[in-house]
Amino acid sequence: MGSMNDPPAVVLLSGGLDSATALAIAKDRGYDAYALSFRYGQRHEIEIAAAERVAGALGVHRHVVADIDLRVFGGSALTSEVDVPHRGSLADLDEGIPVTYVPARNTVFLSFALAWAETLNSSDIFIGVNALDYSGYPDCRPEYIEAFRRMANLATKAGVEGRQSLTIHTPLISLTKAEIIRCGSALGVDYALTHSCYDPDSSGRPCQTCDSCLLRAKGFAEAGLVDPVLGDPPPGPPAVSSGTGEP
Known about the structure:
The protein is of the alpha/beta class. It has helices at residues 17-28, 46-58, 105-119, 142-155, 157-160, 177-186, 211-223, and strands at residues 8-12, 32-39, 62-67, 124-126, 167-169.
């Protein structure tokens, strides 16, 4: 937890390695972190458990889990019965936007973060988007983030009154996965607490063949490090299905 003099920042925290690293960077830069996670209808509650572990380990002023339900729209392998793709290697990734893309997810998440930032009198939001080693999602690109920032500064009472000039911090956007992992490791991130897999088994172990697992494996290999998640499961609540069915 930061001191009373540290400026507040909302940090989007999914429980994955990117958002955990973004949280560590926010704290290293002297922000008092308010972590925001979402129970949005994703297949597995293990993401929420991972976010809670990371928030506890890195120390945040407050961690909020917002409940929304994107299953009512579907359109993604993460929020419907569509199968998560499994591949032999990263070379097998499809061209274009994958079926694990959740329509408008980052726009929804950033809108919630904007609302919280306004109530905190904060002008800072951190999000762990990445435009290099990523899965092709359109809402992870720099031009999207800049467009949202411009919109956000027109959208709030604090902005209109001149009390808020929002900055969306994207410290990972131009880093490779290996660079992200090296950065987080230097800042003390325990990646054993994180979860990246789109299609874990009933005990929460990663499948190692979905896009996210393959990108994570590439990052650790290029960083010259061993992924601690592939050892014993991290401490915390067992994985519980969120009701959309086991993949």
